[in-house]
Amino acid sequence: MPTILCFGDSNTHGVAPLTDIDNTAPRIARRWPVVMANALGWDLVEEGLPGRTFQFPCPVMGPHMDGRIGLFMALESHGPIDAIAIMLGTNDQKAHFEATPDEILAGAAFFLDVCLSDEMQTRHGGFEPILIAPPQPVERGPLAEEFAGANDKGQAVTDGLRALAEARDVTFFDAGSDIETAQIDGIHFDEASHEVLGNALAQFIISETAPE
To answer: Structure pTM?
Structure first.
């Protein structure tokens, strides 16, 4: 059966919405990659790291938050894969990075260039990137200060990811068309949203791969 690699941040990992900065709630079991893979009947490789960005080493959480490092590691340690679902861009909007939407999109472009490179396509026998725009972050709750300014960037990042996918001729999915971030912290997904997103992505992939 096909194998899909899900590469992302805390919302791919399954971190529950935070009631405070030191929240220790257990990881959501039916996170969206699990729901999606179960619905598809595909094998799943999970690569969700809380705090991960497209391209920024984090002065708080560490240099390994730079997703470019993890992307190479994931593509060279797993496989062969048939698809990679990439959902990043939320943490890139943290205030301390001071990143513009264009800078965030430059990191996303690097991701697609790596995935579409002859080296990586050959290594896996060909695979399809699926670029997923995360729901737009909202400045609220315990993470409001950390994501100050994100309210003004989210739509531009979503629109830019869509345009980038079209330019690279890869599959695009807007997660914000199906779910919103939790009211508690404005960043993470609750269990119901993981369920909705996983099933929506599965149906989307089925529709994209169905013979015409």
So the answer is: 0.95
